[in-house]
Structure formats: structure tokens, C-alpha cells
Amino acid sequence: MEYQANNHRYSDMEYRRCGNSGLKLSALSLGLWHNFGNIDPIENCRAILLRAFDTGITHFDLANNYGQPSGSAEENFGRILKKDLLPHRDELIISSKAGYYMWPGPYGEWGSKKYLFASLHQSLKRMGLDYVDIFYHHRPDPDTPLEETMSALDLIVRQGKALYIGISNYQAEEAKKAFDILKKMGTPCLIHQPKYSMFVRWVEKNLLSLLEKEGVGCIPFSPLAQGLLTNKYLDHIPADSRAARKLQNGAMSEDDITPDNIKKARQLAVLAAERGQSLAQMSLAWILKDQRVSSVLIGASKADQITDSVQCLKNYRFTEQELKRIEQILAN
Ligand SMILES: NC(=O)c1ccc[n+]([C@@H]2O[C@H](COP(=O)([O-])OP(=O)(O)OC[C@H]3O[C@@H](n4cnc5c(N)ncnc54)[C@H](OP(=O)(O)O)[C@@H]3O)[C@@H](O)[C@H]2O)c1
Predict the structure, then answer these.
(1) Rounded Cα–Cα distance for residues 216 and 245 (Å)
(2) Residue-wise pLDDT tens digits, 125-171
(3) DSSP 200
(4) Whose CA is nearest to atom 15 of ligand 1?
(5) Is 31:221 a contact under the CB 8 Å cutoff?
(6) 293 pLDDT more than 80
(7) What residue spans define the domains of the chain?
(8) Which residues contact 87 (CB under 8 A, 6 or more apart)?
(9) Fold entry, domain 15-226+290-315
(10) Angle between helices 72-80 and 42-54 (to 10 degrees)
(11) Is-contact 163 157, C-beta < 8 A?
(12) Which residues line ligand 1 (CB under 6 A)?
């Protein structure tokens, strides 16, 4: 069936400025790490993507290695883009990344200029694009000079193959060095993508304050701890869940569903219900309460999860008492 975009798609979404840049991102962004590969039904991929766009989500986050096999998420995104979303290309922010293993030999991972440049060309071809909106270095490389990695990002922007650049998984100290190098080159870093959820909080120590000071945006990934911070695992492990699917590529497994995690998730779910939210909605709201967060980067295996998750925007304010209770639950 021919796709007709929802005419009201921009009415309920919030758009936040990304750092000091001119770019606004939807408060929720959709990532295609899992559920968009060749092992996943393409009609479901399409349903999720179109639901996201119809809900006001403008930002879609990919990487060279997303999907099983690696690269297939970009291929499938490219197929759906061509079929349904190409008339809306200028309403979309499309991101890709390189840093993790992608092809054999010395040029297929990490942070050399050779790898980043070649990988972006492959990504553009897979997605059928002339340029991406944001291109990230996916993880720090301890062996390549930071100047080389950053100059690759600068080159990519100067050639018009990406409009903005970002870094991911960099600790605060190495991020600061990268920002300084990029500033000198005249291509400021747009955004940092760290892992952040109620269960993983390292960014609170010194990264969020650094990003605010530097005028760099922040887009936390895995805000639901891959599903642990939802109602999904409270009683059993559903057969169609990420944990039960035994995926590779860093996906959670049944071993991550520990009695301690479940105990905390159950107590958090009680508080969420008192707030009139699902645990997923409260977990996203808890991240979005901080205005230093430009957008929260969610995953989804079903279109209805998108509809459920965006409801977090109805209430991302917390009383002091609620925040204290969350701290107590997480500390126990
Ligand atoms: N830069 C990096 O190194 C890096 C690393 C990891 C991820 N990322 C990015 O971050 C994105 C999101 O990561 P993630 O998928 O781990 O995020 P997440 O939002 O923490 O987890 C997504 C999973 O949670 C479950 N879920 C989502 N919404 C739900 C809802 N409303 N109710 C119940 N369950 C719900 C689904 O699990 P089921 O599949 O079980 O239904 C879904 O697949 C990735 O796609 C990728 O773009 C980046």
C-alpha cells in the first residue's frame, strides 16, 4: 500500500536544540541496531519506521555494523527510504557511524582515516544516499592519533558527505581532546552518544557537565537498558523478546535478567504506575527531565512500542520525592 504520511506528525513531538548548533532533534530518536536486519521481517521494519515518522520522530540512527548480518540494517533502511520516505528526505536526520569491526584486514575497524572514509562510502551506497546528516566515530581508538580520526571527520564534512559529526562511547577526558581538535579545524562536534539509563549512569559524573560547557548535544542510547527497564521481564522472559532471541552484536541475553535487576524494575514499575506511566515511559521521562539531553535514542521491535514510548513526553517532570524514591530503589 502506498504510504501517506500523517499530516499531524509534528503536533505532539517536542524538538530540542542540539548543543549550540542550529539543528533541532526530535526528543525521541529511533535506532536501528536490532530488529532491522535481514533476519527480521521487512514489513515489520517498515511498520516501525513509518510509525516513528508519523509520530514526529525525525532522527534515525544507524551504523555500518547494524543488523544481522552487519550492514543489513542500512540496506533495509535504504529500501524503505526509497519506497516510502524519499519524498520526505529533507524532513529526516539520518545518522551513521564507523568504529567497530566491519571487514577483514587492517582497514576494517577502529579509527584510521582510511577506515572511516571507506566505511562512510559503503554506508552511503547501502542506504542509497548522497550524504548523511550526522556521521559518528563509534568508539575511541587507543592506537590511532586522535588528530587523524578527527581530521577524517573534518574531511567528510568538507566534502559534503556528512553535514555534522559526532563521537560515541568517548569518556569525558578523551571527548574534551576531540572537541578541542575539531574546534581548531573549524568543524565543531555536534553531538556525543553515550550509554545512559537508570541502570548505567557514568555520564552523570563528568560527561553531561562537559557537554553543556562545550555546547555539544547529548543523545543517550539504550535508555531502557535494552528492555530491562520496561514491564516486559517482570514476570517471565517473553519468547519474542530481545533476551530470548539469543542475538549477537552486544545484545542482552537471559543472563542480564538478574534477580537484582528484576527486583529494582518491579519497584520502579510501581512508582511508574503511580505516575500514570508504564515503566518504559517513566524510564525515558527520567532521561528527558535533563535539558542537557538533546534526544533519547530508543530501539523498538514493534510499531506499538513507539506509540507507547512517545507518551513519556506527557510527563517528564519528577517531584523531589519521586527522584529520592528512584535513588533509593536503585541503591538497594
Ligand atoms: N553508540 C553505540 O555504541 C550504541 C550501542 C547500542 C545502541 N546504540 C543505539 O541506540 C539505539 C537504541 O538501543 P537499544 O535498542 O538498546 O535501546 P532501548 O530503548 O534501551 O531498548 C530497546 C528494546 O526495548 C524494548 N522496548 C522498547 N520500547 C518498549 C516499550 N514501549 N515497551 C516495552 N518494551 C519496549 C524492545 O525490546 P524487545 O526487542 O525485547 O521487544 C526494544 O527492542 C540502537 O538502535 C542504536 O541506534 C548505540
Answers:
(1) 36
(2) 999 999 999 999 999 999 999 999 999 999 999 999 999 999 999 99
(3) B
(4) 299
(5) yes
(6) yes
(7) 15-226+290-315
(8) none
(9) TIM Barrel (3.20.20)
(10) 60
(11) yes
(12) 31-35, 61, 138, 168-169, 193, 221-227, 230, 232, 241-242, 280, 297-301, 305, 308-309
